[in-house]
């Protein structure tokens, strides 16, 4: 097994809100190996987005520790790309300028950045919308802009929070295949957050299943289906057996909530 890139040990997060304290994560352990595609699967509200924000250096845990390449994470990093659950686009900037945001903040080469941004817009099927504003795009289109923005600076670690949840079924299938292609070609490490079992099984080398809130790891499952996986993979008996196994676990979790 390759080197460990991300390691979470005993992670806990307690939010203080007007309604009192909310324990989002408690005693969560997980690792991501170099080059691995890891999905984090769990019921709604179990702390998945909280975990992603910690990995992105946007939130400090209340307990435990998290390291990237052996060093504690102390803030956002240029070699990490983030795709948020909500597209979070700047409404006064064009699609292209939104995609270029990491290039500007990291002061990367603008000519190369622009070429890459246009390539990514083509990849997500939005090449003719480069000059449109977010208000002129559907929710699914905005989300695809967010995906292009997460990739534009060619990060080695990609953190994705339910990136395909707002997409229609056909676009989602297309994006799953594309993400696998990008991952296989570029040797990236990916943490992919989802509540979709087939999405997690299709994409992942490994799936970490979280309990209902407060989230902690209750299953760590290797998915050894051969790659590249194709649309036909989703019809295969092994694929469906893995999905069913996870589904029964999920049913117990939801009752638990
Ligand atoms: N900023 C916050 N303040 C208070 N509670 C929060 C905050 N963010 C999330 N929570 C609560 O923490 C729990 C986990 O949230 P989240 O990480 O968004 O879960 P998930 O992404 O798995 O749906 C939820 O109960 C949510 O309401
Ligand atoms: Mg979430």
Total domains, how many?
2
First-residue to last-residue Cα separation:
35 Å
Number of strands: 10
| The CATH H-level homologous superfamily of the largest domain | P-loop containing nucleotide triphosphate hydrolases
At CATH level 2, the architecture of the largest domain is 3-Layer(aba) Sandwich
SS field, number of helical segments: 8
Report a brief summary of the structure:
The chain is α/β, with parallel strands linked by helices and 257 residues long. 35% of the residues lie in helices and 26% in strands.
Q: How would you characterize this protein structure?
A:
By secondary structure, the protein is an alpha/beta fold. It folds into 2 domains: 1-79 and 174-257, P-loop containing nucleotide triphosphate hydrolases (Rossmann fold); 85-155, no CATH class. The protein has helices spanning 48-55, 95-99, 101-105, 110-123, 139-151, 169-186, 197-203, 237-256; strands spanning 4-17, 20-33, 37-41, 63-68, 71-72, 80-83, 157-161, 189-194, 206-210, 217-222. The strands form 2 sheets. Strands 6-7-8-3-9-10 form a 6-stranded mixed sheet, with helices on both faces. A 4-stranded antiparallel sheet has the order 2-1-4-5, with helices on one face. A hairpin with a 2-residue loop joins strand 1 (4-17) and strand 2. Helix 4 crosses helix 5. Bound molecules: adenosine-5'-diphosphate and magnesium ion (MG). Magnesium ion binds next to helix 1.
């Amino acid at each position: 097994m390759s080197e460990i890139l991300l390691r979470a040990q005993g992670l806990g997060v307690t939010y203080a809100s007007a309604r009192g304290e909310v324990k989002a994560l408690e005693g969560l352990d997980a690792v991501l190996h170099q080059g691995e595609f890891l999905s984090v699967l769990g019921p709604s509200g179990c702390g998945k987005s909280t975990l992603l924000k910690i990995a992105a250096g946007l939130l400090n845990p209340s307990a435990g520790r998290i390291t990237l390449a052996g060093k504690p994470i102390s803030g956002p990093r240029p070699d990490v790309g983030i795709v948020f659950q909500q597209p979070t686009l700047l409404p006064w900037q064009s699609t292209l300028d939104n995609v270029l945001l990491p290039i500007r903040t990291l002061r990367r080469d603008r000519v190369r950045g622009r070429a890459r941004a246009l390539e990514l817009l083509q990849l997500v099927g939005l090449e003719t919308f480069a000059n449109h504003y977010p208000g002129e795009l559907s929710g699914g289109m905005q989300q695809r802009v967010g995906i292009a923005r997460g990739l534009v600076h060619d990060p080695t670690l990609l953190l994705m929070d339910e990136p395909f949840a707002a997409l229609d079924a056909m676009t989602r299938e297309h994006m799953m295949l594309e993400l696998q292609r990008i991952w296989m070609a570029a040797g990236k490490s990916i943490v992919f957050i989802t509540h979709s079992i087939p999405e997690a099984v299709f994409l992942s080398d490994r799936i970490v299943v979280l309990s209902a809130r407060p989230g902690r790891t209750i299953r760590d499952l290797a998915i050894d289906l051969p790659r590249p996986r194709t649309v036909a993979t989703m019809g295969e008996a092994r694929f469906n057996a893995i999905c069913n196994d996870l589904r029964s676990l999920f049913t117990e979790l939801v009752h638990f909530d």
